[in-house]
Amino acid sequence: MAVRQRAVSALPTLLRTLRKEPLKPHSHVNALPSLRRAFSLYDQINLIDQVPEDQLRFQGYNDTGFTVNGVEYEGSLLCVGNLLMSWKPKKFSEITADSLSLFQVIRPIPEILILGCGRNIQHVDPELRRFIRSTGMKLEAVDSRNAASTYNILNEEGRIVAAALLPHGVSA
C-alpha cells in the first residue's frame, strides 16, 4: 500500500515536469514518439526495468534517412537486435531474398522482420514472403515511420527483432 501511495503522490509532480519539458524541434527531421517519455511515469514508480542506454533507438526520420541514438544515417538501414548496418536497396523493388540473405546465417534468428517500405505500405512478393518464412521469421510490412517505431517498442521489450528500412521519402 505504501508503494501505491508514493506513486500517487509523485504523479502530480511528474506530470508538471513532463508538461514543462520543451520539445526540441528539428527543422529537417520528423521525431518519432519517445518511448522513454511515454514510460517515464512507470520508470518513476519502478514498475518496469530501466531500458539499457546502449540499445538502438530510432529517434527520427526524414526523406533520405534516419536518426538513431543521436546519429543521422543516410539511406536504407538493416537492424538486427542492436546491430545497425547500411543496406543496399534504394527502392522497394530492389528488396529481394538476396538482399536479405543475412538472415540465413545469423543466430539467434529474429522472431520478426519489420520491413519499412518507405512512405507507403507496399505489397510484398509471395516469393519474398516464402523466403522470409523459410528463415523462421514472421514478416510485418509497414511504412518506414511505423516500422522504426515498432522496432523501438519490440527491441525495448527485449524481443529479438530485425528491421529492414527504406528511407521515408521512397515511394512506389
From TrEMBL:
Record CDD domains: Mth938_2P1-like
An individual GO BP term: mitochondrial respiratory chain complex I assembly
Keyword Plastid: no
Keywords: Mitochondrion
Gene Ontology CC terms, in alphabetical order: mitochondrial inner membrane
Family of this protein: Belongs to the NDUFAF3 family.
Localization (cell): Mitochondrion
InterPro entries, per the entry: MTH938-like_sf, NDUF3, NDUFAF3/AAMDC
Predominant subcellular localization, coarse grouping: mitochondrion
Name by which UniProt lists this protein: NADH dehydrogenase [ubiquinone] 1 alpha subcomplex assembly factor 3
